[in-house]
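Design request, tokens follow.
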């Protein structure tokens, strides 16, 4: 894959100093009263919390509590990954998945191997993969008499153990990165009740020649509460194919429900879906699965282009997609330093980019760039400085639009819906056991925009959401001493620190 890079952005933030009626105030280190009360009610000590608030364009923060402490950011580290990618690769960057062959095409018969070369596309969904295969059929290819060969050299995900993080290897969020990441490597099982026949059908997507599904699920009465509690699922695989068996009871009141599961390794998943979709498209394939590079002298049959980076970043941040974030993180070094993309190489590229912007982060630890990690660390102050830098960056519109809008979409769509902050803040959240975080921008009631970061690292962090909501509300309402004040000349100034 040829590099298609914009030159690295060199953003220098010019800070204007405005005249004030009173001496400039220093940043407060005390936690605002409503936030302190909410933390006390949740039994979270203030020394397990880091808060940083600064108005865009101001010379220093309005609030900095424990802001230099190195803390686990959970999913808000995605803001660093996506901002760096937007600047280093450019918003219009896209990924390529290519089909190659070294064999002759005689009529509609390929008398040799078909090679799929992955370019690390984070959004190669089954629909897009179907379009790729349909394009091959439209170009006259029907029967493949060789093997399906997968070229996966673009990304090196290392020895990824999907169960290492939390012991849940079948959870889709634990899927590791891959140069040919297809459909997030997940199967969707649909539980469809038929009230007339008193039966429950279990359907699977995408279609795969490597998956066998059996079901003996019975329709049940009662309320739809924890609908999975009444089901028994048995998942197994032998490395080449997988078996999913379901039994138990499913409440009719639930309607149709979906269960997402990751069962196969990347190559077996791609092979199974390819074989079934190719047959559905009227193609013939009886070959096996192999891995290897595109042979010398091969010719390109078709290139599938992914959505742009700006679109991918929106999916990553709006819905906190860990798998896509990991793909993007490794793709940074693959594109800028040459394949394969690796975590340690991408971490070095991102750190160098931040230092070039004048943001030194000695506390920064980047593991996989998604936040699904017990090792990643950053301070609230440095994440806040990155937010200010992003606001002054040419990629600000794409970056800000990727953050969930409070009460309206993404991971914030159900939060603070009847609150004054609703629709006034773009906020990314993060959560792990013992970690609750948020970061983003708040447009206050006076029309001033603030970068906001709030980290909680404590065993009782799950109870910290009211405190974080209280901070967003406090920033939105603003301090009285910071209200704009008219002068004799008619200009409006402020007693805030600028």
């Amino acid at each position: 894959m040829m590099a298609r890079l914009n030159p690295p952005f060199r953003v220098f933030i010019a800070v204007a100093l405005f005249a004030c009626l009173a001496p400039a105030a220093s940043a407060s280190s005390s936690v605002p009263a409503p936030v302190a009360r909410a933390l006390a009610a949740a039994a979270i000590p203030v020394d397990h919390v880091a808060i940083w608030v600064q108005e865009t364009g101001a010379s220093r923060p309005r609030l900095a509590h424990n802001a230099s402490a190195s803390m686990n950011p959970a999913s808000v580290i995605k803001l660093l990954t996506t901002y760096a990618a937007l600047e280093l690769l450019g918003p219009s960057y896209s990924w390529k998945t290519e089909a190659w062959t070294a064999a002759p095409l005689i009529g509609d018969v390929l008398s040799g191997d078909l090679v799929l070369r992955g370019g690390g596309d984070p959004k190669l969904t089954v629909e897009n993969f179907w379009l790729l295969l349909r394009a091959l059929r439209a170009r006259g290819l029907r029967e493949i008499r060789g093997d399906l060969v997968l070229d996966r050299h673009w990304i090196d995900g290392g020895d990824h153990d999907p169960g290492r993080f939390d012991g849940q290897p079948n959870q889709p969020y634990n899927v590791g990165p891959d140069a040919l990441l297809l459909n997030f490597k997940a199967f969707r099982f649909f539980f469809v009740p038929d009230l007339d026949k008193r039966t429950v059908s279990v359907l699977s997507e995408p279609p795969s020649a490597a998956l066998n599904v059996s079901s003996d699920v019975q329709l049940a009465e009662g309320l739809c509460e924890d609908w999975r509690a009444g089901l028994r699922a048995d998942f197994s695989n032998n490395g080449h194919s997988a078996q999913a068996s379901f039994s138990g009871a499913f409440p009719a009141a639930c309607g149709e429900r979906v269960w997402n599961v990751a069962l196969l390794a990347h190559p077996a998943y791609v092979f199974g879906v390819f074989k079934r979709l190719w047959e559905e498209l009227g193609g013939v394939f009886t070959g096996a699965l192999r891995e290897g590079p595109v042979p010398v002298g091969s010719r390109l049959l078709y290139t599938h282009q992914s959505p742009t980076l700006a679109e991918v970043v929106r999916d990553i941040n709006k819905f906190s997609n860990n798998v896509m974030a990991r793909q993007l993180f490794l793709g940074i070094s693959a594109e800028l330093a040459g394949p394969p993309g690796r975590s340690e190489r991408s971490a070095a590229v991102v750190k160098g980019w931040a230092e070039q912007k004048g943001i030194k982060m000695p506390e920064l630890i980047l593991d996989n760039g998604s936040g699904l990690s017990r090792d990643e660390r950053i301070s609230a102050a440095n994440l806040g400085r990155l937010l200010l830098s992003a606001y002054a960056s040419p990629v600000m519109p794409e970056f800000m639009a990727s953050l969930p809008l409070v009460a309206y979409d993404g991971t914030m769509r159900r939060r603070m819906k009847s609150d004054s902050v609703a629709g006034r803040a773009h906020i990314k959240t993060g959560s792990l056991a013992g970690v609750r975080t948020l970061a983003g921008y708040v447009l206050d009631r006076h029309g001033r925009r603030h970068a906001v970061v709030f980290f909680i690292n404590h065993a009782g962090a799950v109870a910290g959401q009211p405190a974080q909501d209280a901070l967003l509300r406090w920033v939105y309402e603003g301090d009285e001493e910071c209200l704009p004040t008219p002068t004799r000349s008619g200009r409006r100034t402020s007693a805030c620190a600028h």
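Comment from the thread starter after seeing the answer: thanks! Residues 187-261 form one domain.
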